[in-house]
Specification:
444 residues; alpha+beta; Cytochrome p450; three-stranded antiparallel beta sheet; 11 strands; binds protoporphyrin IX containing FE
Length: 444
């Protein structure tokens, strides 16, 4: 199938470090430059060889075959040390069962109920804001997305102190895990171990509290505790623990990062911001957005999708081959690393014309339909596609529209955007924004 596609190797690998210094210095620039080398591009992460499919046909091949291109090897072992063997980190052999057990909680008919929490929390998000104050975008949105996941899926209140503890613990744990994989001789460090222990303890606390109160609250955690597979088996306590931790990570940092990147892009593109504002004002007239409003905010949705194209939070999705396999003109032995990078695909000019241009109209249905099917990877594709996509799309439209219905987000004076860093989830580091209260529109 992919026999006429060619492979190439990025030149200039250093002994031991490979391309790591270049990747660490400018991860976005390094990744965006890969498609210029060929259809399948190899580079070196320390001593590991990594294959990056850049052609849509190769992307399709890898996304679709999760048995051959599995989540395994030392990288995933490090992530499992933190998250356990939940839906996002488990290998193919455990995946179908876990997915079957979680899927009912993410069906479209559950969204209107979850969206009530999204609307309430979006209002709560801005309640403490004052005119002319400065906020940092990512932590502000993280507070929102964590509260939404905790309340809608786990029926739990999350006090502010816990929000801060969780964010910090995830940050230290993943930074430590990345260092341990990329620079193996380094010991993990006290901060890493403390962060992993804190995450485990927080989730135990949440699940214990839940079990003690022992009522079915019709939320995801009740569903998980009651779920039975076809053979009648239930999730064990350890499995429930791993799923909760997985959702607390996968369902929060990603959407918060997307909202923060969107704010930055809107500051850089006032013409897009003005059109967005007109749509939001026309539909909401200054009130908070609800689930019913989402379908009337198509430009808002396109702005968010385009933001996900420019800055996909899941930008480096790692797979390990489980058997000898052909990819382009290469034969990969078992244990080879393959990186599905939505960031690479989204910045490939042979797939997305003028890829650095922020152009929400490329998501108008007729233009989007002309794109190769596996090109957009913001929520991944195939069997491991994000289970929370519908949830996240509703959550981010509701948050963005509710905030902008009443507030203008202006650049904080004297700050410049911080450069992108090599992290597991692509998110802006500091993005200080000035909150300016908008005059209420005349009643209609
Ligand atoms: C803008 C928001 C989000 C983005 C960009 C995003 C992105 C992704 C991506 C790229 C993957 C695939 C990872 C891989 O293939 O290695 C994924 C998987 C997953 N996501 Fe999301 N996600 C978002 C929101 C959410 C939400 C809100 C939830 C849950 C509440 C969630 C839960 C999960 C889970 C459990 C998986 C693993 C699915 C599986 O392997 O079957 N995500 N997400």
């Amino acid at each position: 199938m992919s026999g006429n596609l060619t492979s190439a190797t990025v030149p200039g690998a250093l002994p031991l470090l490979g391309h790591l210094p270049r990747l660490a210095r400018d991860p976005a620039g390094f990744l965006a430059g890969l498609p210029a080398f060929g259809d399948l591009v190899e580079f070196r992460l320390g001593t590991h060889r990594v294959q990056v499919p850049c052609h849509p046909e190769l992307l399709r091949q890898v996304y679709a075959d999760d048995r051959t291109f599995d989540k395994g090897g030392p990288f995933y072992q490090r992530f499992r040390d933190i998250l356990g063997n939940g839906l996002a980190t488990c290998p193919h052999r455990d995946h179908r069962r876990q997915r079957r057990l979680l899927q009912p909680e993410f069906r479209a008919d559950r969204l209107p109920g979850y969206a009530e929490v999204m609307t309430r929390e979006a209002e709560q998000l801005t309640r403490g804001w004052t005119d002319g104050a400065t906020i940092d975008a990512f932590p502000a949105f993280y507070r929102y997305t964590l509260r939404v996941v905790a309340r809608s899926l786990l029926a739990t209140e999350v006090p502010d102190a816990l929000v801060d503890r969780l964010q910090e613990s995830f940050e230290h744990a993943f930074a430590g895990a990345l260092r341990r994989v990329l620079l193996p001789p380094l010991p993990a460090g006290r901060r890493y171990h403390a962060a992993v222990a804190a995450l485990g303890a927080t989730v135990c606390e949440l699940v214990r509290d839940y079990r003690e109160r022992g009522v079915d609250r019709g939320d995801l955690l009740s569903g998980l505790l009651a779920a039975r597979d076809e053979d009648g088996s239930a999730l064990t306590d350890a499995e429930v623990h791993d799923q909760v931790l997985t959702l607390l990570l996968a369902g929060t940092e990603t959407s918060a990062a997307q909202l923060a990147w969107t704010c930055r892009l809107l500051l850089e593109h006032p013409e897009v911001a003005a059109r967005l504002q007109a749509e939001i004002d026309g539909v909401l007239g200054g009130r908070a957005a609800t689930y019913q409003d989402v379908e009337h905010l198509p430009y808002t949705a396109n702005v968010l999708t385009e933001s996900l194209r420019r800055y996909p939070p899941g930008w480096i999705l790692l797979r390990t081959t489980t058997r000898t396999t052909e990819l382009a003109d290469r034969t990969l032995p078992p244990g080879s690393y393959v990186v599905l990078s939505p960031y690479v695909a989204h910045h490939n000019p042979r797939i997305f014309a003028d890829p650095t241009r922020f152009d929400p109209d490329r998501w108008q249905p007729e233009r989007a339909a002309a794109l190769p099917r596996w090109a957009f990877g913001g929520f991944s594709n195939g069997p491991r596609q994000c289970i929370g996509e519908g949830y996240a799309r509703a959550e981010t439209v509701i948050a963005l529209a509710t905030v902008l219905a009443r507030w203008e987000l202006a650049p904080a004076p004297g700050t410049r955007p911080a450069p992108v860093r090599l992290t597991t989830i692509l998110r802006p580091r500091r993005l200080p924004l000035r909150t300016v209260r908008r005059p209420l529109p005349p009643t209609r």
